[in-house]
Amino acid sequence: MYGVHAPPPCAGAAHPTSPTDSSPKGRTVTLTAPVNPPKALPVSRRESSVRRAWRKASPYAYIAPFFTLFAAFGVFPLIYTAYVSLYRVELQTPGDMEWRGLGNYTALLGDEFFWNSLRNTFTIGVLSTVPQLVIALGLAHLLNYRMRGRTFLRTAVLLPYATSVAAATLVFAQLFGRDFGLINYVLGAVGIGPVDWQNDTVASQIAVSTVVVWRWTGYNALIYLAGMQSIPDELYEAAAMDGASRWRQFFHVTLPGLRPTIVFTVIVSTIGATQLFGEPLLLEGSISGGISHQYQTLGLYMYEQGWGFFHLGRAAAIAWVMFLLIVVVVGVNALIARRRSRKEAGR
C-alpha cells in the first residue's frame, strides 16, 4: 500500500505536532500546526489610557462637590460683595447701581458710628475671649484627672454650645434685667445697688460678653482636653520624679505642650468676636446696639446699614472691612506664634 504524504511545510513552518493518521481509504495524512498559534488579545491601548486618566482624575472628582459648593456659597459671594462695595446700591432698587469707587470706604472712615462699633467689637472681644479661654483651660485641666462621672462632666460642659443662640441670649436678657433680673436681685442681697445692664456702656458690654463666655467655654475646654491627652505621660512622670508640684507641672509641661492648641483657640475666638452678631442683637432686640450704640458691634453696624438704612453698597464695604480685619488679626497672631516657636527652637 502506497502512502500519500502531504507536501512538506514551507520554510518557517512549525514542526508537526500530531502523529500520522490513516484515512479510511488507507491514505496517510500528516497534520501540521499553524505557523503562529493564536494568542490572547491584548488590552486595548485606549481602554488602558482611560483607566490611567481616571486614576489620576478620581481624587479630584471625589472632592469636586465640596469645592463646587464652596465656590458657589463662599468665593462667589465674597467676590460679588467686593464688586457691590464699589457702587451705590439701595435695597429698594438693587438694579440701579451708581459707581462710587472707594467712596463707600472713605465714607466709613468719616462715620463716627463705624469707629464706635469697631471699638465696641474690640472691647467685647477682649472681655469675652480672655475669660473664656482662661476658664476653658482650667476646666480642661480638671477634666483631665481621673474622677467619677468624668464622661458625664465632659458631655455637660458642651451643652451650652449646643444651645440655640436665641434661647441663650433671651434667658440672659431676663437675668440681666434692671428691675426684676436675678443678677440685680443677688447684687441687692449683698448691698450693691441695681445695675442698668442694657443702657450702661460697660455693663451692657459685660452682659454681652457673659453670654459669649457661657456658650463657648465648654467648646474650648474640650479642645484643650484633647490637646492635653496628646501630651506624653512620661513628661509628667519625669516632672513628678524631679519633685515638681501640680502647679509646676501645669506651667512647665501642660502649657508648653498646649501652645499650638492655644494659638488655634485664640485665632478662632478672635474671628468669632469680630463677627459677633446674635448676642448683641437679641440682648435688647435693637439693631443699633442700645440707645447710644454702646454695644453695637461691626456685625450689627453692617446689618443696620444694609437692612435698616437700605445702603447695600456701604454694607458690602463694611463686610470687606471685617474680612480684612480678620486677615490682619489672624496674620499677626500667626506671626507672633511663629517667632516664639523659632526662639524656643533656637535655645
UniProtKB/TrEMBL annotation:
Keyword Cell division: no
GO cellular component: plasma membrane
Residue span(s) of domain ABC transmembrane type-1: 118-333
InterPro entries listed in its UniProt record: ABC_transporter_permease, MetI-like, MetI-like_sf
Region of interest: Disordered: 1-35
Bias (Pro residues) ranges: 1-10
The entry's keywords: Cell membrane, Membrane, Transmembrane, Transmembrane helix, Transport
UniProt feature, compositional bias: Polar residues: 17-33
Predominant place of localization: membrane
Membrane topology: Multi-pass membrane protein
Biological process according to GO: transmembrane transport
Pfam families referenced in this protein's UniProt entry, alphabetically: BPD_transp_1 (PF00528)
Transmembrane segments: 60-83, 122-143, 155-176, 317-337
Coiled-coil regions listed: none
Compartment(s): Cell membrane
Family note: Belongs to the binding-protein-dependent transport system permease family.
Protein's recorded name: ABC transporter permease
The species this protein was found in: Streptomyces gardneri
